[in-house]
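Why Secreted protein? Reviewers of the renewal asked for a concrete example.
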Amino acid sequence: MRTVRMLAAAALTGAALLGLAAPAALADSPTATADPEDTRSTSGPTEAGTTFRTAARFLPGQQATAQAATGDYLYWVFPADAGQRPTVNATVTLPDAALRHGPAVWRVDVYDGLRRRQPCMYGTQSRTAAKETATVELACVLRPVRASADAWANDPLPGSYYVRLTVTSLPDDDLGQPFTARIGVSTVDKGGAYATDGSLAAPLVPGATTADQAEADADAGRPSAVEAAAPEDGWSSGWWSDRWLWTAAGGVLAALAGIGGYVLTRGTGRPPRVPPAA
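Here is what the prediction returned.
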């Protein structure tokens, strides 16, 4: 009976430890959601850049808008941290169908801080709008951002991410017609499932320089390029993830299993009827 109680206590302890680790590891809900009553959290820039250098910055959870002429390249930039999986959504409101002369193909692309184009895991990255279509919906779900990667890899890393929206094919007569674009980004925390050992010296942010320059900026009271491009809650260090919780819980459960196995197999000692010299 005592053995049963010990094993039950061990099972309850392991379940409690896993219960602490599970919410963080199994979280798959957007981490950047905005309060619908807080207009400041959802309002983003109302203009877009026309190059990487002039990209308009916004945060996940905000909605960036812009009005431009068909044929322009529009650029925005947002931060993404380790463990996050960003999803970019774009809505293009087209000119009146009576003013257009045929179908058009719209496309959204995402580039990291090194200006490497990042492939989409899924989503409609490019779509053809018929002449009568009023709006075009585009989406790109990126791969989870890793804290570090090999130099030859194309894995997404913490830093700035650029969104480029443009039309890739349309009748020549439709060039220059006005349109409205709306861009939004949501992030999902993927946790320790995609954690790596190690982290970058600094996020991939344009203008990021050496530690000496960052210290000089701090002494002068200026925010560094990395700080200026950080998410709302700052950059994570990269070394912590909920994988540590799972590792610790697994170690405790293994120890409890070893103790339980020993208790079950050690027996009760020498039978009382056996002589001492036997």
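The radius of gyration is 27 Å. This is the kind of structural detail the renewal will allow us to pursue systematically.
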